[in-house]
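User: Please fill in residues for this 543-position structure.
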């Protein structure tokens, strides 16, 4: 299910081929870390003509980048501090990203509900929403002030007794999830010539004669091998200081961490809107759509250690806050929770900054790309999905300071394939009797790789039917995913490349025939045994 020999803009390397190429190529840059910062760096650098390797100790997007709210936004809340320039810049980044990925990033309406204790009056919030719309160059549907009665009509699940009104405005939401978006950037980087490998950990690094000599460990076998590069990009997210210690590189900024928790529960509203509320501490939290479920979050708790888990207090707080603000038949309880997500935001403390709790709103606004020219290391601190294209561009500038010479790309280095390719793929799908809804999802999932799915269907139409009851994923989809998406463990497929484990309880996922067939197709009987032994996937990354 893989090509033995890759070619630029062609098929993927097999895993063995990637490991061999990592060990035999003198790279211009090796990127350490496969979250959003590492993925966009590898894509940008490879598109600018550099020889790039990307290694991730676990799965791509298995850390912070799988724990977000899946929102692509322009920083509406930062208007509270009247930082117009900041919000305008974030809106530009949001607009550019949304325009580049029109099927993966969708405009979504928000309903911000303002209770009696909310920090803003409805008229003032409406003014802010219109300013936000203007700073976003009017790219979205116009915001609207909503009365209490209108909110009750549009969103009957909202408890409207005692509220003052609200505002409806637009931002963007990922159509699938954050981790899939990141893995697609990794695939795009590979298409531009990058050599990528997940479950490969950096064990040792030594700089000599202007070249980094690395020892890497393949976590799937335990074997080690060597690699080399002129420059390292430290994109390890919350663990950036660990790689800094390993490489003896320095940054002037540092990180502090904010823990965030999301709970998936049965669907609260089918409107497609995101509901926004202020909690008892006047912090925003959301009820977000995810498939046929709702997601409640996020919390914002200072922590010292980036390794975090959901506590009973986290769970109780979110369920209590949302139940107070919804008009349901009964309050949501812990037994209603289908799945949980928990991670940290890495917040940048600039030189001389305190990182005190009152400064965290300020800290969350920015990322930092810092270059230790003497050690030939570029470090990325902070960052978020909405601003990832800026990170990619800044990393290209940073490696120039280390003596590399990236070339201007022949075409725009990011974004979905051109519309004519999409039209051609959808037209071909229609000719194979694939419905328009299924074809649209197929395009969003595979992009250019959709032709491979259609080739399979052209040979055997039976490969196009849904594998199981939980998702319309077909056998042809799974075959192409297995070829390109670096799926090595059950959670790679069930948690990150799809949303099976976020939308359904572990026992439901493990028992579904379609899931079992998909795991067997990609990972064999060993993958099935791993899933059956740990259906909650709790130990999947600890081998």
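Assistant: Residues filled in for all 543 positions:
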């Amino acid at each position: 299910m893989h090509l033995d020999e890759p070619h630029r803009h062609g098929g993927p390397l097999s895993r063995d081929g990637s490991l061999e190429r990592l060990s035999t190529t003198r790279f211009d840059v090796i990127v350490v870390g496969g979250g959003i910062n590492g993925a966009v760096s590898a894509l940008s650098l490879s598109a600018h003509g550099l020889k790039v390797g990307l290694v991730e100790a676990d799965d791509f997007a298995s850390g912070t980048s799988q724990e977000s709210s899946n929102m692509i936004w322009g920083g509406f809340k930062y208007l509270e501090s009247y930082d117009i320039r900041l919000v305008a810049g974030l809106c530009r980044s949001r607009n550019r990203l949304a325009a580049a990925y029109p099927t993966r990033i969708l405009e979504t309406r928000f309903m911000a509900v303002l209770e009696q204790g909310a920090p803003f009056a409805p008229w003032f919030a409406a003014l802010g929403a219109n300013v936000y719309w203007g700073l976003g160059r009017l790219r979205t549907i116009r915001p609207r002030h909503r009365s209490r009665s209108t909110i009750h009509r549009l969103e009957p699940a909202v408890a409207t007794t005692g509220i003052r009104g609200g505002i409806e405005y637009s931002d963007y939401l990922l159509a699938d999830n954050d981790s899939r978006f990141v893995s697609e950037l990794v695939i795009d980087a590979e298409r531009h010539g990058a050599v990528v490998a997940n479950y490969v950990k950096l064990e040792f690094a030594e700089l000599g004669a202007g070249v980094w000599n690395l020892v890497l460990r393949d976590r799937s076998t335990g074997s080690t091998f060597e690699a080399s590069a002129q420059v390292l990009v430290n994109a390890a997210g919350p663990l950036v200081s660990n790689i800094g210690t390993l490489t003896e590189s320095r940054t002037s900024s540092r990180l502090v961490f904010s823990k965030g928790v999301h709970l998936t529960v049965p669907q609260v509203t089918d409107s497609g809107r995101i509901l926004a509320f202020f909690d008892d501490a006047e912090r925003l939290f959301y009820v977000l759509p995810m498939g046929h479920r709702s997601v409640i979050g996020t919390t914002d708790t200072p922590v010292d250690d980036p390794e975090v888990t959901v506590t009973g207090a986290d769970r109780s707080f979110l369920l209590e806050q949302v139940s107070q603000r919804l008009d349901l038949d009964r309050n949501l309880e812990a037994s209603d929770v289908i799945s949980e997500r928990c991670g940290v935001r890495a917040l940048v403390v600039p030189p001389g900054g305190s990182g005190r709790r009152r400064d965290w709103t300020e800290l969350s606004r920015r990322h930092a790309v810092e270059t230790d020219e003497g050690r030939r290391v570029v470090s990325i601190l902070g960052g978020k999905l909405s601003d990832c294209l800026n990170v990619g561009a800044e990393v290209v500038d940073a490696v120039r300071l280390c003596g590399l010479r990236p070339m201007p790309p022949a075409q725009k280095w990011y974004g979905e394939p051109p519309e004519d390719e999409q039209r051609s793929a959808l037209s071909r799908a229609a000719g194979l009797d694939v419905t328009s809804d299924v074809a649209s999802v197929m395009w969003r999932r595979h992009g250019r790789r959709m032709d491979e799915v259609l080739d399979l269907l052209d040979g055997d139409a039976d490969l196009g039917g849904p594998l199981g009851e939980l998702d319309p994923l077909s056998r042809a989809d799974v075959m192409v995913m297995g070829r390109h998406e670096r799926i090595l463990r059950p959670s790679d497929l069930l948690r990150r490349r799809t949303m099976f484990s976020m939308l359904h309880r572990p026992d439901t996922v493990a028992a579904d025939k379609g899931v079992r067939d998909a795991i067997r197709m990609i990972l064999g009987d060993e993958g099935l045994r791993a899933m059956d032994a740990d259906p909650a996937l709790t130990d999947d990354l600890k081998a």
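For context: The CA atoms of residues 91 and 137 lie 8 Å apart.
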